[in-house]
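Input chain follows. Return structure tokens only.
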Amino acid sequence: LINNLNKNFAFPFIAGKDHTALFLISAFFYSTISIGETWFWISSACTYLINSIAVIAAAAWIIDKSDSVLKYFFGLISFIIIGGTLESSVLFLVFIFIVILLADFLKPGLQLKSVIDFRKYITGTILILVSFYFLYTGGAMEKRMSLFEQQGFFDSILLNFKTTGMIILLKLPFILPYVFLFTFPFIALSTSAPTRNKNMLIIFLSSIVICGILIFIYQFPVTYKTNDVAASRTLTVMVLMLISFSVFTFIKAGSIINIHPFIQKRLLYISFSSVLLLNLFQLVHQYNLTSAYATAYDQRMKELENRKSETLIELKPLPESGMLYSAEISRDTA
């Protein structure tokens, strides 16, 4: 994906794609909602891991200009996996597809066809819908839905406004600073002609509205099935969307500012060094936190083993687990 982005947009990085990888991977990791819980599930449950991989692989394939048979095969497989592993991402991705088609139709000047292979995109979207149909109508899904109280379609839409608001107000404020921090360097990467402020304001406001609509659509299948907010681990694709919109907005902002190449290069050096220092700090800090947590956890398990004959055991709370998913038990004795 990073290689294809560099080829299509010719970003003027100091040392090529390595800088893009550092900014985007850091943004994806630190912007994850509930890092400990989400990465525990991503690394231990194939459904979430393979869906995230498939989304990135599919995005890389539709902007790839080569006609490799092997890439076609893995590209098509990626779309099938998307529709068959995480139902909440299907409507979300199909809506993005419709928006891109409308943008290309209404604004030919955007030249989206020069970036995106629409034949691949249309084929992939059809495969997503087909695999989603088999997932949603399967016996396992019926058993899963029977565990929740079902309500009407329009009632689910009304409830979805509430659950979407909960995501925006209770979850996004904790990750947006990281999204902006790691995508800010892209303000120095614009190679397009200067854009008028009026156009930039429209682009910025449109991005906010579209993001809100996408979150609403992403959340709806979860609301319809469970009447609840999506678990943090299922919001990974939504985080990728927010990062993408932030990158796009900062690149457009850079076209207004029209940064001098000298300042542009220095800004990228500073950003690159800052991200490296932050990652180094977190490496040391998280090592100290998780080492203390792991030691306390092992001691607790030994204590439980030694006292398993007792009816009531009082335990000391585990220390902070850092970015690990804490195994602390509930303090609620009810």
